[in-house]
Amino acid sequence: MIELDGVPELIDPVMVAAFEGWNDAGDAASAAVAHLDREWKGEVFAALDAEDYYDFQVNRPTVWLDGGVRKITWPTTRLSVVRIADANGKGKPRDLVLVRGIEPSMRWRSFCNELLGFAHELGVEMLVVLGALLGDTPHTRPVPVSGVTSDPDLARTMDLEETRYEGPTGIVGILQEACTHAGVPAVSLWAAVPHYVSQPPNPKATLALLNRLEDLLDLRIPLGELSEDARAWQLGVDQLAAEDSEVAEYVQSLEEARDTAELPEASGEAIAREFERYLRRRDPQAGPGLATDGGVADGRDGSYLRDTTSGRTRPPRPAPKDPKEPKEAKEPREQHREPRDAEETHEPREPGGSADAKGPEDGTSDDSGE
Question: What pTM value is reported for the model?
Fold first, then answer.
């Protein structure tokens, strides 16, 4: 039995999870959850026992100094709670349970059962897992984000794709299947990251995931400097591509394929969704001030629970762009930490998504994890 004595009763809680590793191209998904935790000042209240799930020769612990005292941070999965005082701009509060960790090395079924035990005790209404995969998508266009679920009713009511993926999977796919058997509504959001620029960070893909999460949960997420980071990232890739004629030609071919595929998708629904997001951003009350510091702690020494290695790499801020440079996309991207075959990805089918970007639910990706 999981006991959470230090956690207050939650309001309409949703669990949002991301795992570093195979399902996290460009660290886009884990960076998105880290952004939520940072902006809403989440406090860790639980951590899974690292000895149960991790091979320390694969994911090594780190030693650090705290006032001259040596401490150890173990590679594990941590849970925190944040309370959003004005979740949808109408004064309605809501709680998020944030799960952030590394894909476990072993005992995946026990790992998922333990996370679902926390979800049950906290009264979680739905689980949203964020992921990112490599795809044939140009960095100059908006990042395709697909939303998939194993629940036909959820797919219909939330305008999601019902998963049809078959093949190797990661912890995201296993966790979603565990939710299906446990009767917990579960959704996966996947961002497609350009395979030709896969090293992290990719703030453009992170921003795309957060924008889709906003639409899914009817939230207003403070973006901080993430939009600026995304613009700087794209400018840097533009400059690198301009220096190599073969890369520039390849990017142009991806742009043409993407634009041709998306022409029928420039629907009034997609335009309306972007306009609604624009209106939310213009609200003077939107921003980090909407969230309280309502994280919770378990009352124990946090030296083994808190991940203090949050150093976020930001690219230099861009100079004014030349009008001849490729047009900036509205959303950012990230890429995968582990090497993956860019040809074995599948096609996200979200409105505005790319027909040439591979998504996790079309059965052609062996690295999407679901």
Answer: 0.71
At 322, list the tokens. Answer: 């030349």
Does residue 175 contact residue 129 with C-beta atoms inside 8 Å? Answer: yes
Mutual angle of helices 171-182 and 108-122, in 10-degree steps: 50
Structure tokens at 283: 């609200």
- Let me know: does 11 contact 125? Beta carbons within 8 Å: no
Neighbours of 186 (CB within 10 A): 26
- Do residues 347 and 140 lie in contact, with contact meaning Cβ atoms separated by under 8 Å? no
Ranges of the chain whose pLDDT falls below 50: 1, 284-359, 361-370
Three-state secondary structure call for residue 64: strand
User: Residue 34: which H helix or E strand, with range?
Assistant: helix 28-39
Q: How far apart are CA 119 and CA 37, in angstroms?
A: 18
Whether residue 201 is preceded by a cis peptide bond, meaning omega within 30 degrees of 0, is: yes
Structure tokens at 78: 């941590």
Q: Using H for helix, E for strand and C for coil, what is the string for 98-149? A: EEEEECCCCCHHHHHHHHHHHHHHHCCCEEEEEEEEEECCCCCCCCCEEEEE
pLDDT digits (tens, 9 = 90+) for 217-239: 988 899 999 999 999 999 999 99
Kindly tell me the burial class for residue 148, based on how many C-beta atoms sit within 10 Å of its own C-beta (0-12, 13-18, 19 or more).
buried
What tens digit of pLDDT does each residue of 247-263 get? 888 888 888 887 777 66
Q: 184 vs 94, 100, 117, 154, 158, CA distance in Å?
A: 19, 19, 11, 11, 15
